[in-house]
Amino acid sequence: MSLNTGDTAFVLICTAMVMLMTPGVGLFYGGMVRNKNVISMIAMSFIAFAIVTIQWVIAGYSLAFGSDISGFIGSLEHFGLNNIGLEGDSIPDLLFMAFQLVFAGVTLAILTSGVAERIKLSSFIVLGLLWTTFVYDPLAHWAWGGGWASQLGALDFAGGTVVHISSGFGALALAMVIGKRTGFGKFSFEAENISLTLIGGALLWFGWFAFNAGSALGANGLAVNAFVVTNISAASGAITWMLASWAKGKPSSLGMISGAIAGLVAITPACGYVGPLSAIFIGAFAGVLCYKMLLFRVKKGLDESLDAWAIHGMGGLWGALATGIFASSAIGGVDGLIYGNTYQFLVQTLDAGIAISYAFLVTYILAQIVDKTMGLRVTETEEYVGLDISQHGESMKA
Question: What b/e readout covers 301-323, taking b as 16+ CB neighbours within 10 angstroms?
Answer without folding.
Answer: ebbbbbbbbbbbbbbbbbbbbbb
